[in-house]
Amino acid sequence: MPYAPPLSITPRLIDLLSRISEALGRWEGASAGTGLSPKLRRENRIRSIHASLAIENNTLSLSQVTDIIAGKRVLGLPREIKEVQNALVAYELMDSLDPASSKDFLKAHAALMAGLADDAGRFRKGGVGIYQGTRLVHLAPPAERVPYVIKDLFGWFKKTELHPLFAATVLHYEIEFIHPFSDGNGRIGRLWQTLALSRWKPQLGDLPIETVVHANQAGYYAALGAADRAADAAPFAEFILEALLESLSKAKTSDPVSDLASDPVSRLLAVFLPGESLSIQTMMERLDLRHRTYFRRTFLNPALKEGKIAMTEPDSPHSPKQRYRLVTKSK
Q1: Considering only CA atoms, which of 21, 66, 18, 68 is closest in space to residue 42?
Q2: How many Cβ atoms are within 10 Å of 59's Cβ, its own excluded?
Q3: Do 11-250 and 259-330 share a fold?
Q4: What is the rounded CA–CA span in Å between residue 178 and residue 196?
């Protein structure tokens, strides 16, 4: 009997499918069918790489990741810098990869883990258990079974009639459940989900869903655990689709820096997402600026003077907790 991962189609999943389809339609309409600009695609790719590695405890900031990808020298741990460089190579391979190919799966892992794991691009040879403290919470399949269960999984994915949104999330969950490699399972699982989604809707390859997952990392691991306990991928699929929907709600369809190049205040306002309070560093990163004095003089101070943004700590202008928010009338 052909292998089929367990997935209960819950009312929540049906609701998420409907809402994501509507959000995708709006996103496609907003971009007028022309797709994202090369600059915006690059920014989203950088955000995806930064967030996926941050989930694995990489401590480099978004601006440092941006500089590494731009070929600039960055002060940081050599291993963390290598992780960024490898991730860029792996993500840029996506257009040539088949999400149902074991050979391509190993090729992508080799790119992700080159110089980081001695067995990069090869399935693990030992057993794996996931622990919380001293408690075993997940025992992966025996190493000798890994090539066969991966083959079965990809065979299922190639032929499944599940909606692509459901199939991609199940594929991600199963990769984490199988834990096919000695290291790098989380990042390859997230990459493979993005690859699978991009084969259904190419623009989803440019959506930095990893940023939402990173923001709710505890929920990500809780959803994995809930799916394990239920022997059903539904809890994990619900979490991922909720993250995807949130990513779509925040997605930009144009480059505010290019579209509003003549107006620094408008450029600054355009980097805010609804309800956000941003630090100076975050605003500068989103504007791709490096000089704080120039940013304050040209962008921040005029926006404050015009009443377009406001401090979250107005009584302590130099507070390390200071953030800036859009004034309601500017939203």
Answers
A1: 66
A2: 10
A3: no
A4: 18
- Dihedral of CA atoms 136, 228, 237, 37 in degrees, nearest 10, equals 30
Tell me which of 3.40.50.2300, 1.10.3290.10, 3.30.70.3190, 2.60.40.200 is the CATH number of domain 11-250: 1.10.3290.10
Question: What is the CATH architecture assignment of 259-330?
Answer: Orthogonal Bundle (1.10)
How many alpha carbons fall within 13 Å on the CB side of residue 226? 13
Q: Which residue in this structure is represented by tokens 């205040």?
A: 265
Cβ neighbors of 22 (< 8 A, separation 6 or more) are: none
Structure tokens, 203: 């623009």
DSSP string, 147-198: HHHHHHHHHHHHH--S-HHHHHHHHHHHHHHH--SSS-HHHHHHHHHHHHHH
pLDDT truncated to tens, each residue of the chain (331 aa)? 678 899 999 999 999 999 999 998 887 776 655 566 677 788 889 999 999 999 999 999 998 999 998 888 889 999 999 999 999 999 999 999 999 999 999 999 999 999 999 999 999 998 877 766 777 666 788 999 999 999 999 999 999 999 999 999 999 999 999 999 999 999 999 999 999 999 999 889 989 999 999 999 999 999 999 999 999 999 999 999 999 999 998 876 555 444 444 478 888 888 887 778 899 999 988 887 778 888 888 889 999 999 999 999 999 988 989 999 998 754 3
Please state, in angstroms and rounded to a whole number, the distance separating the CA atoms of residues 72 and 166.
Answer: 39
Determine the 3-state secondary structure of 91 from DSSP: helix
Per-domain boundaries in the chain: 11-250, 259-330
| Torsions phi, psi for 220 (to 5 deg) | -60, -50
Where is 137: in which H helix or E strand? strand 135-139
